[in-house]
Amino acid sequence: MKTTAIYFSPTGTSRRGAFSIAKALQTDADTMDITLGEKQYEKEFGIDEVVVFGVPVYGGRVFRGIKKRLAKIKGNQTQCVITVTYGNRAYDDALLELADIVMKNGFIPIAGAALIGEHTFGEIQIGRPNAYDISEDKCFAKKVLEKLQAGDRTPVQLPGNRPYIKGEDGGKGGHFRPLTDESCINCGLCAQECPEGAIDMEFYSKIDASRCISCFRCIRNCPVKAKNMNTTEYTIFAEAFSKKVSDPRENKFFIE
Q: Is 186 found in the same domain as 159?
């Protein structure tokens, strides 16, 4: 069955999980990156295709822009696998929320996974997903493939609450906003690559706090490391938060 991985992944973490599962289902699986540009993407999938969705968790909910980005991505009773990536705290109702979103668009979630990834803040689960995580993704994909080959289109049972416990849509990312130091070479990469268009296209140190989701993509991608979060407030928070969620969690897979 034709397989496509669709992901919102500012720093590549959600992409790795979704793509590893999709590739295990079909070695030459297609990909659709919906990270850049606050817009609606358009694509329609058939009943004989499979889609693997991957999005990050923000405060127990899926990223707030997912509904808009997926609004014109339609399925025709298309089977799908949904994955959410979280930074070792909790995924709360995010997996169920993503299932609700894609079902309204004509997809049937037959499997789901809550995957651990390196947290944006602090030093939390550095390097994850690692090789072991990816191997778990592949083992999960084999079970998904068995379900597909058996013709079992039963929707998966997922943990979560309706209404969602977290009342606000995910995506604020806290109140930390990246800074820019004097080493900036005005290359404009940060503004071009910002998922929410929060960085001014002329004055790259200017960030719209209402649009920024603190994904820190600009910090990760800046070629001269001019973008940073070098403040005492952030350092204190990051150290405390890293200790609070230091115990590693396991990936959770759902297929029944």
A: no
